[in-house]
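Consider the tokenized backbone below.
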């Protein structure tokens, strides 16, 4: 099952550990700590693949047993076979091992959103969400993204310096999505701030309730103004006949799904463009390779490197491993992107290859309309920034840009820059 890789250093101590008590029936289970994901993830994946093959039993912090699917081919199998690899996390047999404050609870703990539905129920909910997001055409969307980006740059352009994460990237995705929901500019900016506070842990328990209240208000407003065309009016009038609870949960689900990954897509692409000399010409005025930088990030520094995941609905075999009913599988999206069988070489001109796993795959993969939205937002954000601040440059050394060390969401914490102050 293991293929030696002569270019790698000797075995990592964790990967050769004696059988671990957390998963006795998997003697080669690997103990993985959150910090392992803040170092070079590529080395970690290569080492795991070398020593354990494409599907690895791992114990996450707290001895939580999870299969990590590293192989591209294996990931395609898992994401395209929803009857065997199902989405409802209540199927997990190991919930008793999970502490209530587990860092992944927000994503993995069952909630009645579309994300955790299966089969016909998932089809019904997904169709409504997809139809609602298709309401905005590409030209309107581009104009909206440009307005949002321009408005934010106005707030710091005169200063001559900014943090492109706090002042810019993390402010954009929800200001766009909220307008698509039917909010006015002031409501949109407020909700954006509530979400940023909530995600960064500042909001407290009332922040979530505040978000729910805003979704309720949105739904009621959509019912009162059925002739308006926005995401909320499509959802309340959709033939899928969504209940109030379903509408509120799916509106909220989109807010959570969109905010951090799209922020990190913008941030990770800006980091690449500001630190890699291949993009120097683009940064000083050309726009040509913004799409290329975004695509490269989706392969090599993807905002969602791992996703938990899937739960086996029956016993099955995967890459020679016996997966038991109720086992949890973590989708190693970044690891699959780095699979030597598929990985393109961008330094020798593989710019157009979009077969990455950044958005996952299959029926539960990020919906195509949401992927297009994320990429359109990122593209406009970077292009408008380059147009408005053509001499923007980093004020920190590239190696001092810090990665947030999250297992499931990965982005740089801050991008301090300077530029010639301008006024509109
Ligand atoms: C760069 C930005 C984004 C990335 C990397 C990303 C990635 C992902 C991933 C990995 C999943 C899980 C797929 C699975 O379980 O197989 C997902 C699901 C989802 N995403 Fe995204 N996403 C992004 C942006 C967005 C945006 C902007 C929206 C909506 C406004 C969105 C809406 C959703 C929804 C609704 C799902 C659940 C799909 C389902 O279970 O059927 N995502 N996304």
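A designed sequence for it:
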């Amino acid at each position: 099952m293991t293929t030696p890789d002569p270019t790698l250093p000797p075995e990592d101590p964790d990967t050769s550990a004696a059988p671990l008590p957390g998963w006795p029936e998997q003697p080669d289970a690997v103990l993985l700590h959150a910090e392992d994901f803040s170092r070079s993830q590529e080395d970690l994946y290569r080492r795991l693949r070398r020593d354990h093959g494409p599907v690895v039993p791992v114990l996450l912090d707290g001895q939580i047993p999870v299969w990590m699917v590293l192989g591209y081919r294996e990931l395609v199998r898992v994401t395209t076979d929803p009857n065997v690899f199902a989405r409802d996390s209540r199927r997990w047999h190991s919930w008793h091992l999970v502490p209530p404050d587990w860092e992944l609870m927000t994503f993995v703990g069952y909630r009645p959103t579309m994300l955790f539905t299966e089969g016909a129920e998932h089809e019904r909910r997904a169709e409504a969400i997809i139809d609602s997001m298709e309401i905005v055409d590409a030209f309107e969307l581009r104009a909206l993204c440009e307005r949002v980006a321009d408005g934010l740059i106005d707030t710091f352009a005169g200063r001559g310096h900014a943090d492109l994460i706090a002042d810019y990237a993390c402010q954009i995705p929800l200001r766009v999505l909220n307008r698509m929901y039917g909010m006015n500019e002031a409501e949109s900016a407020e909700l954006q701030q509530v979400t940023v506070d909530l995600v960064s842990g500042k909001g407290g328990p009332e922040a979530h309730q505040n978000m729910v209240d805003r979704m309720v208000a949105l739904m009621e407003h959509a019912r009162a103004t059925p002739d308006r065309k926005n995401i909320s009016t499509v959802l309340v009038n959709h033939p899928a006949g969504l209940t109030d609870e379903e509408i509120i949960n799916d509106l909220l689900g989109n807010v959570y799904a969109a905010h951090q990954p799209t922020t990190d897509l913008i941030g990770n692409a800006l980091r690449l463009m500001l630190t890699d000399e291949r993009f120097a010409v683009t940064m000083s005025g050309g726009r040509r390779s913004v799409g290329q930088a975004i695509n490269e990030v989706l392969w090599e520094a993807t905002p969602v490197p791992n996703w938990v995941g899937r739960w086996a609905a029956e016993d099955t075999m995967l890459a020679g491993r016996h997966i038991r009913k109720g086992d949890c599988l973590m989708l190693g999206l970044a690891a699959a992107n780095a699979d030597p069988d598929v990985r393109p070489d961008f330094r020798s001109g593989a710019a157009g290859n979009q077969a990455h796993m950044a958005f996952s795959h299959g029926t539960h993969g990020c919906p195509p309309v949401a992927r297009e939205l994320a990429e359109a937002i990122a593209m406009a954000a970077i292009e408008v920034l380059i147009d408005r601040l053509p001499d923007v440059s980093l004020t920190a050394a590239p190696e001092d840009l810090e990665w947030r060390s999250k297992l499931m969401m990965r982005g740089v914490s801050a991008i301090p820059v300077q530029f010639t102050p301008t006024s509109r």
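Residues 1-20 have pLDDT under 50 and may be disordered.
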